[in-house]
Amino acid sequence: MERPDLAAMIVPLGRALTAAERPVLHAHDLTMWAYVVLLALGEESPVRSQNALAQAIGADKTRIIGVLDDLQARGLIARRPDPDDRRTRLLSLTPVGRRLRDTAQADIQRQEDRLLAHLPEADREPFLRSLQALAAVRIEEHLGSGRPRR
Question: Of 6, 10, 35, 11, which Cα lies nearest the Cα of 104?
Answer without folding.
Answer: 35
